[in-house]
């Protein structure tokens, strides 16, 4: 990826250009020290003078009213105005035809920066007098946020418009708008900070200073990236609207950088210092205000996408080249309009231009599916096997690959323009969207209907969610969502629940990024110096003791400091080094093969594979998979291979149970799901087994409650309770047990005969398709193995 820069042969301004701003992707305004405001039409390549400023007014900054807030502020066409700050201490609100709607005395000395809030309700300005002020939409002073002794060179709004970031010499300050709120401040550079920007989508801050460095920060003031020193001070920085890239300007220097800080491209145009940078609304081009009277335009080209044996490259603003690396066949795809977003995956190439969407199949590049877009500004494309998702300023849309709109999921207060790849995830049956106003909330939608899942309640995490991803394989009922929260803990959560509580389990701590495998439900995650690969994350719900055995670790020291985890394709992990180069590393191919065998219920082949590989991790995966699928024979073999003797014995006991529902309940017990086990038994009418389950677990109150409720085996519960107390030489203190023991006589002969009758009834049930052995696992008096509590 790089910039294709354009400069006019002769500059249209005669003095230093100080500010630029886009009204649309095809129209730019620029202001300079020659007192002219010039309009640039990118379609016709024409320029025209909009207005001439007074002789004592030299512009310093320009910012257009946000289009997303154009319905606010009471005026129709409110997005047609911009604020211009100047050296005479005034802020000027000007419409696009050049008429000054209002001029206000704002600061003593020059006003150095001015920014509209994202919702359009307020304006913040920073001045040479060291003050930061907040103004209403109409230009009335609301408050003075701070008064410093040194000039404030840059100011910008936080994502929620409730706090402001500004410079204070070598320090950065985040000041909430609340009167009593304490500001956060940190030393950011060794020289005066000249320029800053804060992106609302990724919530990251960039700063540039006289120490010739640019740096990336999070909102806690933690450094995410620091560049090496340039030859000259950094005079301008600007995020793309979607927060994936940013541009850096310096003397005769224009740099394109990834959100993590490393540089894609470096251009050395003859511009003098680039004092101001502005991205177009679609994020495809950037304009720079240059010290030598020029305005520089730079388009992003040569963006590369790879999927299996295909490579797609955006060669120009309206052309994509696709190459099949297997046979070196090259296809050139031309488009009518400017390309905005491209996605390649799952046998399809999706291209969004400023007015249309093209869907190409890798089998046929000649006849794409084409449909019109309501809004041109597509900010995100996410793909799944059956459909893809597009985000623009107005909403989220799921389309099939034949161009049909499947659904448009929405939740209350959704801000579509704030969504990114970390806060929105998609697979064949589910769409998950993190709420922007409350980052602990994740909304789950059915991808076919767009309706909220289950009872309509969202997933509530305990801490703010940073990143999330849905698994891509397996049946919809077993769908899992992986979450990284603000504490950098990795959680696995079940998506589709049926009348039960949603299970969320912590897998690991200090995780920075994660990704699911594209072919199987393996999960890879990056921590400091290591990559963890969970071969079967679902093991945490089957037998949590097996989970550590199913995790593989890889040390990342070979890939330099702080590499990024980008993808997990087949048995390859795709990493990006700190300087931006791509590398890959591999894991063993056997877990993927095992997943394939289990998905096809080829249990004998799965056992044969594990015997061939002779790896405990693989056996542990098979044990968990077989237990989940209730394949007892395979589970027994796998548990035996990893020397889990108690569980082998427990599975043998389960095999002897005559009733299918009772076997399922015992399997749920093996997985640690005590409540599920009890509910299975009660629904099947096996009340006695449900009572004895609670007796085994010493859950005496629940056992008595069931016995009383169903009017059966109250004496059995009281008898086992007496044996339990006698064994530990204790007296009864439970009031309920004392109450019922007064009127009931404990006769062990009667109890034994009742128990035998219950087992006889089970043997005679029509569902008893496994032969029962007398005194087997169904015998309540026989001790239970498998690591569970010993029967009373």
Automatic annotation (TrEMBL):
<dbReference type="GO" id="GO:0060271">
    <property type="term" value="P:cilium assembly"/>
</dbReference>
<protein>
    <recommendedName>
        <fullName>Intraflagellar transport protein 80</fullName>
    </recommendedName>
</protein>
<feature type="domain" description="IFT80 second beta-propeller">
    <location>
        <begin position="302"/>
        <end position="590"/>
    </location>
</feature>
<dbReference type="InterPro" id="IPR056157">
    <property type="entry name" value="TPR_IFT80_172_dom"/>
</dbReference>
<feature type="repeat" description="WD">
    <location>
        <begin position="104"/>
        <end position="136"/>
    </location>
</feature>
<feature type="region of interest" description="Disordered">
    <location>
        <begin position="758"/>
        <end position="792"/>
    </location>
</feature>
<dbReference type="InterPro" id="IPR015943">
    <property type="entry name" value="WD40/YVTN_repeat-like_dom_sf"/>
</dbReference>
<dbReference type="GO" id="GO:0005929">
    <property type="term" value="C:cilium"/>
</dbReference>
<keyword id="KW-0966">Cell projection</keyword>
<dbReference type="Pfam" id="PF23387">
    <property type="entry name" value="TPR_IFT80_172"/>
</dbReference>
<dbReference type="InterPro" id="IPR056456">
    <property type="entry name" value="Beta-prop_IFT80_2nd"/>
</dbReference>
<dbReference type="Pfam" id="PF23335">
    <property type="entry name" value="Beta-prop_IFT80_2nd"/>
</dbReference>
<dbReference type="InterPro" id="IPR001680">
    <property type="entry name" value="WD40_rpt"/>
</dbReference>
<feature type="domain" description="IFT80/172/WDR35 TPR">
    <location>
        <begin position="618"/>
        <end position="764"/>
    </location>
</feature>
<keyword id="KW-0853">WD repeat</keyword>
<dbReference type="InterPro" id="IPR036322">
    <property type="entry name" value="WD40_repeat_dom_sf"/>
</dbReference>
<dbReference type="GO" id="GO:0030992">
    <property type="term" value="C:intraciliary transport particle B"/>
</dbReference>
<feature type="repeat" description="WD">
    <location>
        <begin position="10"/>
        <end position="50"/>
    </location>
</feature>
<feature type="repeat" description="WD">
    <location>
        <begin position="186"/>
        <end position="218"/>
    </location>
</feature>
<keyword id="KW-0969">Cilium</keyword>
<dbReference type="Pfam" id="PF00400">
    <property type="entry name" value="WD40"/>
</dbReference>
């Amino acid at each position: 990826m790089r910039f294709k820069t354009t400069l006019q042969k002769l500059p249209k301004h005669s003095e230093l250009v100080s500010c630029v701003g886009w009204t649309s992707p095809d129209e730019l305004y620029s202001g300079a020290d020659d007192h002219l405001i010039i309009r640039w039409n990118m379609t016709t390549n024409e320029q025209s003078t909009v207005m001439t400023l007074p002789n004592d007014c030299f512009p310093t900054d320009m910012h257009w009213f946000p289009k997303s807030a154009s319905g606010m502020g009471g005026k129709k066409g409110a997005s047609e105005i911009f604020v211009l700050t100047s050296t005479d201490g005034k802020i000027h609100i000007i419409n696009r035809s050049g008429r000054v709607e209002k001029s206000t005395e704002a600061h003593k000395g020059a006003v150095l920066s001015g920014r509209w809030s994202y919702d359009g309700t307020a304006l913040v300005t920073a001045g040479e007098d060291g003050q930061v002020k907040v103004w209403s939409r109409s230009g009335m002073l609301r408050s003075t946020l701070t008064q410093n002794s040194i000039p404030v060179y840059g100011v910008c709004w936080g994502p929620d418009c409730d706090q402001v970031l500004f410079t204070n010499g070598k320090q950065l300050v985040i000041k909430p708008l609340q009167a009593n709120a304490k500001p956060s401040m940190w030393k950011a550079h060794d020289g005066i900070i000249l320029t800053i920007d804060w992106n609302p989508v990724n919530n990251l801050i960039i700063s540039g200073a006289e120490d010739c460095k640019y740096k990336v920060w999070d909102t806690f003031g933690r450094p995410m990236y620091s560049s090496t020193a340039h030859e000259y001070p950094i005079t301008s920085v600007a995020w793309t609207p979607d927060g994936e890239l940013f541009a850096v300007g310096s003397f005769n220097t224009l740099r394109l950088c990834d959100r993590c800080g490393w540089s894609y491209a470096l251009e050395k145009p003859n511009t003098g210092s680039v004092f101001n940078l502005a991205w177009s609304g679609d994020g495809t081009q950037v304009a720079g205000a240059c010290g030598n009277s020029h305005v520089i335009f730079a388009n992003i080209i040569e963006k590369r996408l790879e999927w299996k044996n295909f490579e797609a490259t955006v060669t120009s603003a309206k052309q994509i080249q696709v190459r099949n690396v297997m046979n070196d066949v090259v296809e050139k795809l031309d488009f009518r309009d400017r390309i905005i977003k491209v996605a390649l995956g799952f046998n399809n190439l999706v291209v969004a231009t400023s007015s249309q969407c093209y869907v190409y199949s890798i089998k046929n590049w000649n006849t794409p599916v084409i449909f019109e877009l309501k809004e041109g500004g597509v900010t995100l494309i996410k793909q799944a096997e059956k459909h893809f998702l597009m985000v623009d300023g107005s909403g989220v849309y799921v389309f099939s690959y034949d161009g049909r709109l499947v659904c448009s999921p929405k939740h209350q207060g959704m801000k579509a323009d704030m969504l990114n790849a970390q806060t929105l995830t998609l697979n064949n049956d589910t769409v998950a969207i993190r709420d922007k106003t409350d980052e602990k909330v994740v909304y789950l939608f059915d991808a076919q209907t767009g309706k909220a899942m289950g009872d309509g309640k969202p997933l509530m995490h305990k801490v703010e969610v940073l990143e999330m991803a849905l698994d891509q394989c397996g049946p919809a009922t077993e769908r899992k969502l992986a979450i990284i929260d603000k504490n950098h803990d990795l959680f696995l959560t079940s998506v589709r629940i049926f009348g039960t509580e949603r299970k969320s389990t912590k897998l690991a701590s200090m995780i920075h990024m994660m990704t699911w495998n594209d072919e199987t439900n393996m999960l890879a995650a990056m921590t400091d110096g290591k990559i963890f690969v969970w071969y079967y994350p679902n093991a945490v719900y089957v037998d949590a003791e097996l989970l550590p055995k199913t995790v593989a670790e890889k040390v990342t020291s070979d890939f330099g400091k702080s590499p990024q985890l980008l993808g997990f394709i087949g048995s390859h992990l795709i990493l990006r080094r700190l300087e931006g180069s791509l590398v890959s590393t591999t894991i063993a191919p056997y877990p993927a093969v095992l997943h394939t065998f289990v998905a096809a219920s080829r249990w004998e082949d799965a056992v044969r594979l594990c015997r061939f590989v002779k790896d405990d991790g693989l056996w542990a995966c098979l044990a968990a998979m077989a237990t989940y699928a209730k394949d007892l024979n395979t589970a027994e073999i796998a548990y035996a291979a990893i020397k889990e003797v108690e569980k082998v014995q427990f599975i043998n006991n389960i095999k002897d149970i005559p009733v299918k529902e009772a076997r399922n309940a015992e399997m749920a017990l093996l997985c640690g799901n005590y409540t599920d086990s009890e509910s299975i038994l009660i629904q099947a009418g096996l009340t006695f087994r449900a009572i004895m389950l609670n007796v085994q677990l010493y859950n005496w109150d629940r056992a008595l409650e069931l016995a009383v409720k169903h009017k059966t085996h109250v004496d059995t519960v009281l008898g086992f309770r007496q044996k339990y107390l006698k064994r530990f030489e204790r007296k009864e203190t439970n009031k309920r047990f004392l109450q019922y023991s007064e009127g009931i006589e404990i006769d062990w002969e009667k109890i034994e005969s009742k128990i035998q009758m219950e087992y006889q009834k089970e043997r005679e049930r029509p569902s008893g398709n496994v032969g029962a052995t007398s005194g087997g696992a169904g015998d309540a008096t026989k001790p239970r193995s498998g690591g569970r509590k010993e029967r009373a």
